[in-house]
């Protein structure tokens, strides 16, 4: 099977730039506010063949160039033009395809009996040794163009139409990323569309984030087809559409929306006797899928950008939902950009660290050493770039233009921040492990890690408070949850200390609570790691259940139960600045799958895996979780104290009480629990 | 006057990529075989203003984005959409324009009473401190697009039409870069156009470099307009067109060509009683102009690429012909690419060195410190990148992928090459001078230069042969002209040694002679420097005159008087691989202007200048040479032993015999000579 090929990583760089330029706010485009990495415009692809008979094949490219046969015996070179039928004589040949593309991505598609473009080809940008080509299962057809993704389209109708304040309000049930299509009854009308993730926002025509007054001509945000009397807008995310000038839909014509997405397999399932928990799982699944396309993006209305911190959490959730390998690879490559590194990912230092850790996570998830090999040079450059900003203690410090983020929380930011050092240490561990996996020298990183770990404890551990403080330079001895959560999660404290941290910090109401689902994730994982599964379940029900109680049909970027009314939708000083469909809101997928159903791989790529369900907490439930990118899964249900479990692949163990039982393949076993 | 603005250097990177992808050969596109630097796709422009009254202005961009007013007192930010009329309140504001462009060059044009985009704005790519914006006098209109250059067009008819071998041969007199336009008499005909820089090539339909069989549909090299029955081809360079299938032009219709160029001022003039010398000057001028557009390119048929060595010589010729400042800036920026340097310019080490020297030459020519400041970071990176490949003696060595070129000649390439070290030393001198000019630390470069100069003499000077040898590692003690020419030119030998080198090397028929006009340039300059003006004149007449005798109407890439017939057009193993209109063939412009008419600046920017005409050699002549980019010139003529001279600007001295006379402004003086 032939595939489109390109210089490894360039498709993702191109698409990531496209994605990061695709934000709209109040009639303006809002490109991401960071340096955008470029792709190679001039490359060549090559592969060596040995042909018993002459081989005819077709060549298509995006761009311009020529091909070359290099006879490996005589070194004679023969050029050829790209055509539907090119013939290479019998013999040993290297086929070279030179493609340049000023405005876009140079790529090629060769198809013949023995000659097919695929992963066996190499690519060069005329610097150094050739690298592997990149491919995508999305681009297997000759008539495709890797710059244009073939999305899945689904026409959706409003679930409810309501007359409000003299206008019409359409409710599509939950957020969608869609083009609005209006088929006018009586020809073009300069109608205004006021969008909203919330009803409040859509009805606030003055201040809504996304609003569009259609223009019959030269409309930068849509297009009117005079012949068909149909206007199609650009892609936008919304749950509600309000048409303030239209009192009856029938007067305008037909409004429907074209929901655009990439489809991911529906593998994971979860339902519980606890309907709220079932609903939380379903809304999490919807939220994650809406934020999953070429890349894991942060949110559908805002920012529509690829953020490494958000993506890092999606990589975990993905394992417990659709287990897609390519979206992880695309997101990693799109985030990282070109080989040279000039700025932290999305400008955030911790996000660079998460990217590094993600490579280890990728390996543990998919056990694909080939991909890890292909990104190793980029991994190393990013690690080295980060270490350039470390001081004599090994602490990473903020450079001009760097953003030490961690979370939306009040940190004591003077000098090095404790949580950031924890994340650096964890990234160094990933760097060491991945380097060793590829037989690369890791000594420099091991030494840095050792020094850093020692100095974290020396400088940030407060013996009086028995906790890590944010800053030692400020002398304020300020404690937040974040560094302490990381210390537990990364195993940087022994069990006794960890237990103390749970009591003194995590369960301490005097330490400001976490307000983002983003950091709730890590906090709950720390509780789970310490055996407080009850706490995890309670938080899921209270915090995510709290959003449901506030009418959420997708999970939010930020949730403060104390906020009421319109204030719930505000953020960043913007009345509707909060994203109401935000990937990092979907972490119950992970928390339920990993800790309540209790599935984890015990070897890379789930060669072996283990399930330890929290039966007492869950009660009756049904669960199905993926085990591989090729559709394997494990399924279990509990009803009336009988547990049934089976898997499609070997290597599984289920732990119930003190028992460890092998999970049979394609054959259910039951046990009384 | 408003101008389009972009991130400094990006317009040139974009256009250079376009240029370097614009080569065609036998029905195939041939992109340059090196790494192509990318431009920034996401930038913002900013400038601070103080407005007494509200200011309204228009904003146009190539790309998408938004604008922002930042109130400098309150720091309050207000966003605005790009529109024909945007109003900023009175007060102190920073105006910011955010523009991203996935496929092209992000740039902006603002026009109002006080708000106008121009050189006073800054640009940022979100890395480090903002830089100056770039502008071009070619883009001053709002309705322009800096990605598309508005070329000058001129329809040309064949000067001669001839029936040959059953077809029709059209001669346009000399090479042109033009689109062929056929207005068919009886509708579309699938005619074949065989192009040639020589008559021989055009008639060789089988093997010609550029041939095009027109297709009515989907023709990648041209377009047929059914309604007008007109086919217009892409741009190609040729002197001849042969239509093998057409016995009479009348049967086909009308063929004319649309000659596309940028126009440069016609300042320099030269005519002599010696008609051959006059002709050489005219053909040189034509050759240089044909190779001058957005950039100085090497040749019009081939490669159509921007090569730093060729451009370096053009920078010298430009001073004695049209004295255009912007083409030099564009060429420097296009060659150099993005700030990071990954490969030597055009892959050639010596070409990187010439680029460095060119910055000094630029300053001496135009005295524009601002431009030098703007490229200093790129200059320094290139110098440092080059020095990374130097050894303990300071010698630069070939790394994998580097090309040590110097000239098409047989060098003894084992280990460091002498001529390359000379060029490195000269580049270090430029680096030191430019650094000091900008008050930058130059010590590192000074030390390297000193060590290198000492080691060049220690390792490459052969006391027996009294000459520099190519290689000391090979022990072959091989002498070529090149290093010895550089030693004279750069003043790396004292006068006595230089005189010896002229005798032992330059005038030694046993040392293989120079075959390229490229190195003839430096050789003649060395002769001139040593006072052998007679030799310079003789070579101009013999070598360039030799090309004229071979029917040249533009000067060639390579000329070996021994080659006869079709062999004259072959190069690189290609029957028609030799470029017959090659910029480096135009150096008589410089040699005549600089050494025979004898003009040179004696202070940067020609603040003072001197003319020392070789009156005995020239006899009666008229000459006019530019003195500045704003049209200043000096004019002199000699007739019947009376010399008349005048200039449009002060600062000039003319030397005649032992006399030094100030050249009057706008008023001729005459003297008997």
Helix-strand layout with pairing:
The structure is a homodimer of 673-residue chains.
Chain A: E1 6-7, H1 10-20, E2 24-25, E3 28-29, E4 42-51, E5 55-62, E6 64-71, E7 77-80, E8 86-88, E9 91-100, E10 107-112, E11 122-124, E12 131-134, E13 152-156, E14 160-164, E15 167-184, E16 192-196, H2 199-203, E17 211-213, E18 222-225, E19 230-243, H3 249-252, E20 253-261, E21 269-272, H4 275-290, H5 308-319, H6 325-336, H7 349-366, H8 369-387, H9 418-437, H10 443-460, E22 461-462, E23 467-468, H11 481-489, H12 495-506, H13 517-529, H14 533-549, H15 588-596, E24 599-601, E25 609-611, H16 615-618, E26 621-626, E27 633-639, E28 642-647, E29 652-656, E30 659-662, E31 669-672
Parallel strand pairs in A: 25-29
Antiparallel strand pairs in A: 1-12, 2-3, 4-9, 4-11, 5-8, 5-10, 6-7, 6-9, 11-12, 13-20, 14-15, 15-19, 15-20, 16-17, 16-19, 18-19, 21-26, 22-23, 24-25, 26-27, 27-28, 28-31, 29-30
